[in-house]
Amino acid sequence: MLYLVATPIGNLKDVTLRALEILKSVDVIACEDTRWSGQLLKHYAPHLNLPPARRGEERRGVEKKPRLISFHDHSGPGRVREIISLLKEGKHVALVSDGGTPLISDPGFPLVREAIREGIRVEAVPGPTAVVTALAASGLASERFTFWGFLPAKSSRRKRELEAAASLRHTLVFFESPHRLMKSIEEMREILGDREAAICRELTKKFEEIVRGSLQELVEKTKAKRPLGEIVIVVAGKGRKKVFS
Fold it and tell me: Which helix (H) or strand (E) holds 137?
């Protein structure tokens, strides 16, 4: 079994009971960053009831900890084959990202595709995702939406992506990095028009912040205070009625 396990995007209490059960029971956890996932497991250790890892415990019948291996954007086909081999041996593997649901702007698609081709069962364990959290908190229409992921770093490609989204009448959701935020929302205002939008920052974390307004207002607010941290931009669809005024 290959489990796709969602982990908290900020607040560690957002982990599900099922996710904890899966992480305890699997043989291997494939992590985007083994150091980060190791810290998460250490935090959850009392709930997971994980034993300490000491030499000779397996011989004494002590339950083993899951083994952590890396699986990230730069993992090549060899790592995919390695994990598939483990699954074909009968091992249970959990795939986790640094936060949120695996495959949603995170590594995992090549592994899942190959597992399905090999007839290996794939099971998603739902939980936190910044996409839906930002959409729900934005105040914008949520009955239909398009998740665009991260816009391209190059301005010319970014503008083409925004032009492709300009005619959509439902809500748009983007991930963005702090250092590109200003340029992105300026180009959104230029290409999409002065629509309502929300900048959702550090969701579920201590310094969570949601700034709402027109794209022009958000440009001005961002100029006055450059935000840091993980950012989701939610933008109203074409021709939608205003909700913030």
Answer: helix 130-138
**3-state DSSP helix/strand/coil % of the chain, to nearest 5:** 40, 20, 40
- What is the set of domains in the chain, with CATH numbers? 2-125 (3.40.1010.10), 130-235 (3.30.950.10)
Q: What is the pTM of this model?
A: 0.89
pLDDT digits (tens, 9 = 90+) for 200-213: 999 999 999 999 99
- Name the helix (H) or strand (E) containing 70: strand 67-70
Backbone angles phi, psi at 29, to 5 degrees: -115, 115
User: 203-232 burial, b if ≥16 CB within 10 A, otherwise e?
Assistant: bbeeeeebebbbbebbbeebeeeebeebbb
Beta-bridge mates of residue 210: 200
**With the CA atoms of 79, 83, 88 and 90 taken in that order, what torsion angle do they form, in degrees rounded to the nearest 10?**
150
